[in-house]
Amino acid sequence: MFESKSGVFLIAGLGFFALSFLVMGLLPWAIYYKEPELSVAQMAEKGMTPEFVDLAERYPDRFKQFFGSPNYKSYAEALQLGHDVYVAEACWHCHSQFIRPVSNEDLRWGPVSHALEYQNALQRPVLFGTRRVGPDLIREAARRTNDWHVAHFYKPTAVAPTSVMPSYTWLFDAEAYPNKKGMALITYVQSLGSWLREYPYFEGDGPLGTGAKSGEPYADATVAPASLALRHGVSNDPH
Amino acid sequence: MTTVSISSDLARHPDAALAGDLVDRKLVLYHLTAGLVFLGVAMLAGLAFSLQFLQKYPFPGIEYLSPGRWRMVHTNGVAYGFLANSFLGSLYWAVPRLTMRPVYSRKLSWFIFWTWQAIVGVTAVGLVLGHAQALEWGETPTYVDPVALLGLILVAVNFLPPIFSMSGPMYVSLWYFVAAFIWTILVYAMGNFLPEYFVGGAAAGAIGGLFIHDLVGLFVTPLGWGLMYYFVPIILRKPMWSHGLSLVGFWGLAFFYPLTGIHHFLYSPIPLFLQHGAVVTTIAIEFVVTTVIINFFGTLRGQGDKLRTSIPTRWFYTGMIFYFTTCLQCSFQTTLTFQRIIHFSDWVVGHAHLVMFGVFGFWLIGITIYLWPRLVGASQWYRPALNSWHYWLTALGTFVMFTDLLVAGLVQGTLWRDLAPWEASLIASYPYWLLRSISGTAIFVGNLMFFYNAYKTWQMSRAPRESMDRNLPASAPIPA
After folding, report:
1. Rounded to a whole number, what is the distance in Å from the CA of B449 to chain A's nearest CA?
2. Residue A238 lies in a domain
3. Which of A138, B38, B350, B408 is geometrically suited to a Cys-Cys bond with A97, CB 3.0 to 4.6 A?
């Protein structure tokens, strides 16, 4: 059996793989099977972010041309496009999208990630990520202004001198205003974590609080994380 | 046992005429060449990407040269361009020899060859154009996935008939090959289609984890070990030390390896008991790996001098030492304790480079060095000294890169845990990233020497000579 063709093919090849898929793949699938997966439209209907409206006010002509007026439909469109840009540029290779319950991550970013936060079409395939060259983004909503993101996507070192993020100038038009993809990407990034009842969570400058230990995404989140007292001799401010 | 006698039978005639018509040498040569071309492209992409970390990326602000996109060309080029091509070339050499039968169809072989190059080419272009899929190591655009799956099925159709038409038990290599053919199809289908079309959320994360690790454990690892069980006894001209350990190694890998994938997402929203299961099975792998390593070093016993005299053997055994290192490292890093610090850090990047390049890349390079003169019909390498330079630059470069990134990971993880501003982790990483680029350059230069040497060897074999040895690799005494 252990050296025969049928043994290797059926037991090792098919059997053991099926076993692993059953235990490690189908089981979590079954656990979350009943949880509804929100479509992009449903996510948009839960409420658009002020940042999306802000884009419309800041770049009225361009916004009108790209998305019309800021409503749930155009918000959904921007979210989807922004997500697609995020994937195409492989942002997720350097930015994770989950907060772990260890290593003070809840103090730095906000509440620990919960499985239900990922039951939506924009997490298909799920964007957990496996590397953090830059910070985690799942609590990024409203943490920074649209202006900051515009400058940052155009030339990251302009606002974060130590950054090793590439500049994404093709998300801008010839006059250095964000184009449709650029606005969509900013909308998407500004939406990450906006489903929490209370946000944003600030790094470094937030009010002192008890820390955000709750893992429940829709429960009352506590106030923003503790101020980051440890500076290690490095200034957090752009020079 | 029967299996052992087959291998020793082949060992007496490593290039014997018995395999003469069974192997399409040109096809092997084409696959290995394609593998080296993609290795070159992937290394260039990796090297360029590493410069981004020094804020010195040579082509900033150009959409189609975006570092993020070329990173995917780097990883996918290695997996589907270099490794897959070199594996196929080696298999077309080894499987007919192990089964005494040709592959199913020579036409199909060539169809697979050109289809596969097209798949890798379209994948690279698609990634650069921004058509990536958000699956680690499955970034192949969604429109390539079904074609690639079809290609993998055709590979199985081509290789399984000669194996299944044999009678009696199979040699160790063939266990690994048979399992790998079926696993690769299943893994590719699972990883590329389920999370995209059928499963969402954290459950898809579990499947994505399985895919990342199964790609290493069920596609690359069994093919790599299967080839080692073939080439090491051939070059050392003796059977494996222990058949019993070969059995333990294969069945241990087959049982435990598929269960480990979720260890990529520890402390994630995937149910914790599954994460624990993945940790336990990952540690179990280390014990299995130890038996395999013991078996191979037992085989080497008494012939340690071969590490000096035989360049392929040197690559093989360096790869095995690196394999033991990565697996030992893995049994620690997979624990929840280590994960607190090293997850998301460069530690993992170092680990990945040591596994994919330091182990499987090394083995395939060793196999290519062994096969190349035999394929082009040269009596030896153009400059054996260049092979030595290639080895030392690449091996040292890989070792330095691994160590460097390992330490960098500890530094980054500790700074993150201590709530240092994010910038602190970047500033602390610069020296490590610089050393990473330098060691990467050493690897690249070493391999440029290898490419040059391979080209000149090929050119040398084309040059008109008095008579014979162009088509006479069979008895030619090429140094192993």
Report:
1. 31
2. no
3. A138
